[in-house]
Amino acid sequence: MQNTVRIAPSILAADFAQLGAEVRAVADAGADMIHVDVMDGHFVPNITIGPQAVGALRPHTRLPLDVHLMIAPVDAYIPMFAEAGADILTIHPEAGPHLHRSLQLIRDAGVKAGVALNPATPVSLALEVLDEVDLVLVMSVNPGFGGQKFQERALAKIAELRRAIDAGGHDVALEVDGGIKAETGARAVTAGADVLVAGSSVFKGGPDAYAANIAALRAGG
Ligand SMILES: O=C(CO)[C@H](O)[C@H](O)COP(=O)(O)O
Ligand SMILES: [Co+2]
To answer: Would you tell me the Gene Ontology cellular component terms (predicted)?
Structure first.
């Protein structure tokens, strides 16, 4: 495994009754960033949290808040999440009429911009905006729920993106999200991912297990 891999626990699998404590616990356990899944019951068939919750989490950690926006239309909410304390805002191309404009809104808000590819979204949509993003997120499940099975087809997309990022000399992180545990994470890193999002496999077993769970992901086994 590359030793530059970063681990981003998804708080979707945390105890929602004590999210602040959960964020502190995974930070203490070695997390590199905190992945926050925002779902609207429209773009995806589930509802989670909004900017108020992101703002409430902000004082609990200095780690980057990696906010994955699964909401449509997304543009009006970008300044609200930036103001709340997000460090990275990642959007889906299908969530607005003009991807370039949405990415510009994110940058204008002073935060890093990411683009997320659903399993059925072609890599070409991300290649088109590699100069405009700080992160590409490859979904390895259909967005909406944690605890799903890793979809193998993500690996070829990661490999293609890695080649394009390296060939173009882009300073872009390549993140994979969905069904990541030690074994699938290792394969994603081999394909070229450098950020692993993991919900179920980090939060399983409760706080006493978080350090070992994160270490297992980092070690790839
Ligand atoms: O974006 C997501 C779902 O839409 C989540 O980040 C993802 O599913 C993480 O959960 P798990 O590791 O349990 O698959
Ligand atoms: Co996510």
So the answer is: cytoplasm
Contacts (Cβ under 8 Å, ≥6 apart) of 124: none
Nearest CA to ligand 1 atom 4: 143
Integer Cα distance of 176 and 182 in angstroms = 13
155-182 pLDDT tens trace: 999 999 999 999 999 999 999 999 999 9
Asked if residue 1 is part of any domain, the answer here is no
Q: How far is the CA of 115 from the centre of ligand 1 (A)?
A: 16
- Rounded to two decimals, what is the model's pTM? 0.98
ipTM over 0.85: yes
Number of domains, the chain:
1
How far apart are the C-alpha atoms of 72 and 161, rounded to whole Å? 25
The alpha carbon of 69 and the centre of ligand 2 are apart by a number of angstroms equal to 8
